[in-house]
Amino acid sequence: MAVRGSAVALAGFLVLALVVGMAAGPADLSMEAWLGAIRGDPGPAATILWRVRLPRVVTGALTGGMLAVSGVVFQALLRNPLAEPYLLGVSSGAAVGAVSALALGLSASAYFALPLAALLGALAAIVVVFEVARVGGRLDTRVLLLAGVVVSAFLSACVLLILTFVRAETLRSAFFWTLGSLSGASWGMIWAMLAYSIPALALVFGLSRHLNALTLGEETAAYLGTDTEWVKRVAFLLASLLAAAAVSVAGVIGFVGLVVPHAVRLSGVRDHRALTPMSFLAGGCALVLADAVARTAAAPMEIPIGVVTAFLGVPLFLVLLRRTIRS
Amino acid sequence: MICDLEGVSFRYRGRPHNALQEVNLAVMEGTHVALVGPNGAGKSTLLRILTGVLPPDVGTAIVLGRPAQDWKRRDMARQVAVVSQAGGVDVRISVRELVSMGRHPYVSPWSALGPGDHAKVDACLGAVDLVGLADRDVGELSGGELQRARLARALAQEPRLLLLDEPTAHLDLGHESRFMELVRQYTIQQSLTVVAVTHHLNVAAQYADRMVLLSSGRVLKQGPPGDVLSPSLLEAAFEWPVDVVDLGDLGRHAIPGRGAPGGAES
């Protein structure tokens, strides 16, 4: 099957991206150093590769994949290709949740608790955005996007305010929380992310047929056997959880949830049973490569990764916006 | 009995009047029942009561032995299928993917469609004569083809009850007849029960075993088409003079008169 073939190709591409990501960085490692590290020789090269770069690229792959799948789910639920966690204010809400928890004394190494605090923030943000955008029982797309962006701006301000007043050692910089970064990645973080993302992704995959049905409209979906209210609630929760877990380890990174599912759909994939796993893989590739660019383009300085994703995402967003409003 | 409505009243939130007022309706297995009446008479509301998406405020709506709103959606989708009004689709999927969605209530969440499901989808595509267009994007279909694709999707659900909400509203005479003949075939061969909302009185009279004439949420008359197509009843419902002519084997036909009742309005 064509879809299975392209999924395998994407997985191969992700492995390649991980290798490229591991090769990129301030320390210039020779081929010998690489081979030594792979053979298991202890030394600075091994430390850099296994303790710094590998966790970083794996975190990038997971974060990118989770953000992309979160975008897929929001787009299906809202029947709108512009929906994604960053533009809906979900990511900023998650950042406020995580920063508040850290400011209140939660340790940054509390990897398993941080995504839950972020989830609370994410859910609070989405409730506000939806209440504003609900006009006569329907969600108005334009109001939704506007409300999302404005609420997002407000929540970013909240993050900056908290960072100004609270000087907790566990808190990372304003750059990290508002534009994202994969520095600070560690294996502990990765296990926590896996613990949240594997069940969430499996459940999203199980909802695929319901998401397919929902693209035909809620009433039609109900006639095809979908309990729409239940599916919507569960799917919103899962999409918010995926975004919140991503934000709690990598800060707010925009547009991955927009660009990646769009690119996968352009290749002809519409069925969520294929769209979800392929977006996960493609999102992983995209963020690992974006991080490699962020680290090398202005070396030895590191560009915030959110800047890289915005440079790719905003032009596409504008094109899609024109198209949506015209239709 | 497939449907049994007793004293069903329903009001949409924020509206001053009931959309349905003490409606009684019995639908027997293997029959085709047409719901007719003017705009806003409550035809589509009645259909949505039967689907369980709207629970009646008063009265009971029993569908296949259970109150309609108590059915789990998945269980109901194996018994009841709906084809709604013609109109475009804004999703880009193939005809086969659209029809495959009819198997949705039969497949478990994590597994793919099985060979039996694919065979059923093929059979339904064949029944509506869309095999040649199966891999086409649904957006490229004509109105008539799209409605046939939706009918195929509904048939893939293997329903005992098929609900049609103005399925041929925008179709020309040829496409409409083709659609209705397909439905008739299933009624006769597989004793599929059909409840259809329509504005086309004569098409309803031609295909339905019984007609239900609704006006302002009430049942004005129900019975065989010959009983419902009466000039006085139709004029009362539509507020317009209607002649009825008997065409022998072709049954009765309603023909709207010219000029308003009494000729007072221009």
Would you spell out the secondary-structure blueprint of this structure?
The complex is a heterodimer of chains A (327) and B (266).
Chain A lengths: L1 H22 L7 H9 L4 H35 L11 H14 L10 H20 E2 L2 E2 L1 H25 L8 H6 L7 H20 L1 H7 L3 H6 L4 H23 L5 H11 L5 H25 L8 H22 L1
Antiparallel strand pairs in A: 1-2
Helix pairs in contact in A: 1-3, 1-13, 2-3, 3-8, 3-11, 3-12, 3-13, 4-5, 4-6, 4-11, 5-6, 5-11, 8-11, 8-13, 12-13, 13-14
Chain B lengths: L2 E8 L9 E8 L4 E5 L6 H9 L6 E6 L2 E2 L5 H5 L2 E4 L11 H6 L14 H13 L15 H14 L4 E5 L7 H18 L2 E5 L3 H7 L2 E6 L2 E6 L1 H4 L2 H8 L3 E5 L5 E5 L10
Parallel strand pairs in B: 3-8, 3-9, 6-7, 7-8
Antiparallel strand pairs in B: 1-2, 1-4, 4-5, 9-10, 11-12
Model description:
The complex is a heterodimer of chains A (327) and B (266). Chain A is 75% helix and 1% strand. Chain A contains 14 helices and 2 strands, in the order αααααββααααααααα. In chain A, helix 1 packs parallel to helix 13 and helix 8 runs antiparallel to helix 13. Chain A is globular. Chain B has 266 residues and is of the alpha/beta class. In chain B, the strands form 3 sheets. In chain B, strands 6-7-8-3-9-10 form a 6-stranded mixed β-sheet, with helices on both faces. Chain B has a 4-stranded antiparallel β-sheet with strand order 2-1-4-5, covered by helices on one side. Chain B has a two-stranded antiparallel ribbon with strand order 11-12. Chain B is globular and about 55 Å long. Chains A and B meet through helix 8, helix 9 and helix 10 of A and helix 2 and strand 6 of B.
